[in-house]
Amino acid sequence: MEHWPDSDALQSARISPDKPYFPGQPKSLEGIALRSFWLGIALALSAVATFSTLLFSSSPLWRLPFFWGALSTFHFLEFWTTAKYNTRQANIDSFLLTANWPLYAIAHASASIECLLTKLLWTSRSWAPLYIGHILLLLGLMLVFIGQLIRATSMMQLGTSFNHIVQHKKNDDHVLMTTGIYGVMRHPSYFGFFWWGIGTQLVLGNPICFLGYTIVLWKFFSGRIKVEEKFLAKMFDDYVEYKKRVPTRIPFIP
Ligand SMILES: C[S@@+](CC[C@H](N)C(=O)[O-])C[C@H]1O[C@@H](n2cnc3c(N)ncnc32)[C@H](O)[C@@H]1O
């Protein structure tokens, strides 16, 4: 598809000092260290806020710092797994905070606002029995943990073949992975991201963002998989057979 730019062009566009991807985007190793430091602080503060609301009040607002903690963990792990298992590719974009800016930030800000408003304003108005809320919360927590685990595991397993930017040409160290978690599902890192995102909205108890996240994530991964597989089939003769044999396990994406 034409709208996917060449990966070299994308890389150079992203590291050009004249073209910051978002305000304050760091360009140096010190900047990367600082970004990790702030994500760590955000994570620690989120953990403290979550556990103190859980321990000292019955307020459902613990969901908000839990969401920010899950978000910080996700982005920190994006960088950490790239730096450890695909060191040459690690740069500031590996945090995945620069992709789809500012839409990504708007999505998470909307989720935070929806949660804050509904939990503060509509605390007494419940549209469903309490146990439904508990089931959805539990399901959301499971999806966040399992989604994160699958995402990080697949990044580790793919190693140097993993790239945040879809590759158009085969690099020397790129091997087709068809075993392990890639033998169970064809795109585990997208599967993990998809369910992680939906899980965060279940934990927040956000009906509007749940719907929005589901539609946007599904459309995004469905389009991306089509493009990615077109290039994978060109790069690897075995890909067509692999595609027939292993499903994506993402709903309505065969
Ligand atoms: C962001 S990674 C996502 C990998 C995979 N789609 C997933 O969800 O786990 C994108 C890169 O992984 C590569 N890739 C995807 N599936 C692969 C496989 N089974 N073996 C090797 N490389 C793969 C693609 O060429 C692309 O450059």
From TrEMBL:
A molecular-function term among this protein's GO annotations: protein C-terminal S-isoprenylcysteine carboxyl O-methyltransferase activity
Compartments, record wording: Endoplasmic reticulum membrane; Membrane
Entry keywords, A to Z: Endoplasmic reticulum, Membrane, Methyltransferase, S-adenosyl-L-methionine, Transferase, Transmembrane, Transmembrane helix
Regions that span the bilayer: 37-57, 64-81, 101-122, 129-150, 193-218
GO cellular component, one term: endoplasmic reticulum membrane
Protein name (record): Protein-S-isoprenylcysteine O-methyltransferase
Topological relation to the membrane, as annotated: Multi-pass membrane protein
Domain of life assignment: Eukaryota
Pfam family, one: ICMT
Source lineage: Eukaryota, Fungi, Dikarya, Ascomycota, Pezizomycotina
Enzyme's top EC category: transferase
Family: Belongs to the class VI-like SAM-binding methyltransferase superfamily. Isoprenylcysteine carboxyl methyltransferase family.
Catalytic activity: [protein]-C-terminal S-[(2E,6E)-farnesyl]-L-cysteine + S-adenosyl-L-methionine = [protein]-C-terminal S-[(2E,6E)-farnesyl]-L-cysteine methyl ester + S-adenosyl-L-homocysteine
Primary localization: endoplasmic reticulum
Keyword Transmembrane helix: yes
One of the GO biological process terms: methylation
